[in-house]
UniProtKB/TrEMBL annotation:
The keyword Metal-binding applies. It comes from Domibacillus enclensis. Keywords: Metal-binding, Oxidoreductase, Zinc. SUPFAM superfamilies: GroES-like, NAD(P)-binding Rossmann-fold domains. Signal peptide: none annotated. This is Alcohol dehydrogenase. Belongs to the zinc-containing alcohol dehydrogenase family.
Length: 346
């Protein structure tokens, strides 16, 4: 076992503190990664504060990890020491079920192993990227293209793939009208990626406060959802709506914006149930769906796509001492658009 520095939280109402955690010795297919940057995701906040269920504390969150390979197991073939790599929201799966065999490990029928707040195959709790090092089996490590800076790469491992996957699955591209609900950490990546795919992109945000940013990211249109006329004007418009908001919204109102056979896909994960009226769906054969992250193959595809199209998240790099403040700023929508921890400050 190796002891490494981390930032941990001891309860839903506790502040982050300095900690030391154990990382396992390398198995033959394991990779040791020196973490350089770790993004802060809204999921980190939900989990750290116990909003998604019971949590075993102390907890080290973080599933947007970018770093450098510093050691490899004897059987590793994909990576070598010095490689630039990333780790996202999962670090293992059964590898045998139908979904894993399809390259959809995120939907493992036995349950994938999350990067933190999970239990690994050794029966040990998983701890995430708010730390200096992590050990991950090579099959759940992805290569970061040289053209993407490591600090910008970190949020791609969650925010990037969480929006890329549904846009890819529902065939966003030329001739498609795509709306992104919310222009936050997820939403701004959705706009950039959908635009690069060739879709006509609209941002649906509560206000017009971020309109200039949204248009700069690639949106062709930007509407305030606080204005009731928005829903009248845009009724029946979109082929695909990606909802990135992790809070209650009027889903039925947004469903009315879909065209025939349109789909509204939820990637934000509010803790409360969201009521849907069936009549909002059946009138125009609309779909209300959900999407998680992508599998490892699709995550690598996303990184290569972002490198090819010059896509990177808009980030604010912070010290580990500022995690608590960053959490409050995320909840207040006071970030443009993703916090990234410089792990050398841990």
């Amino acid at each position: 076992m190796v002891m490494v520095k981390a930032r941990a939280v001891d309860g839903p109402d506790k502040s982050f503190r300095e900690a030391e955690i154990q990382r396992r010795d390398l198995d033959s297919t394991d990779v040791l990664i020196e973490i350089k940057f770790a993004g802060i995701c809204h999921s980190d906040i939900h989990t750290a504060r116990g909003e998604w269920g019971e949590i075993q504390y102390p907890l080290v969150p973080g599933h947007e990890i970018a770093g450098i390979v510093t050691d490899i197991g004897s059987g590793v073939t994909k990576y070598k020491v010095g490689d630039r790599v990333g780790v996202g929201c999962m670090v293992d799966s059964c590898g045998e079920c139908e979904n894993c065999q399809k390259g959809e490990e995120q939907y493992c029928l036995k349950g994938n192993v999350p990067t933190y707040a999970g239990v690994d195959k050794y029966g040990e709790p998983t701890q995430g990227g708010y730390s200096t090092h992590i050990v991950v089996t090579e099959g759940f490590v992805v290569r970061i293209p040289d053209s993407i800076e490591l600090d910008a790469a970190a949020p791609l491992l969650c925010a990037g793939i969480t929006t890329y996957s549904p846009l890819n699955h529902w065939n966003a591209g030329p001739g498609k009208k795509v709306a992104v609900v919310g222009l936050g950490g997820l939403g701004h990546m959705g706009v950039k990626i959908a635009h690069a795919m060739g879709a006509e992109v609209t941002v649906l945000s509560q206000t017009l406060n971020k309109k200039e940013d949204g248009l700069a990211f690639g949106a062709a249109h930007y509407y305030a959802t606080q204005d009731p006329k928005t829903f009248e004007k845009l009724a029946g418009t979109f082929d695909l709506i990606i909802n990135t908001v992790s809070a209650q919204i009027d889903i039925n109102g947004y469903l009315s914006l879909l065209t025939l056979d349109g789909a509204l896909v939820n990637v934000g994960a509010p803790p409360e149930p969201m009521p849907v009226h069936v009549m909002s769906l059946i009138g125009h054969r609309r779909t209300f769906a959900g999407s998680m992250i992508g599998g490892i193959r699709e995550t690598q595809e996303m990184l290569d796509f972002c490198a090819e199209h010059g896509i990177a998240p808009s980030i604010e790099v912070i010290s580990a001492d500022d995690i608590d403040d960053a959490y409050e700023r995320v909840l207040a929508s006071d970030v443009k658009y993703r916090f990234v921890i410089d792990t050398s400050t841990i």
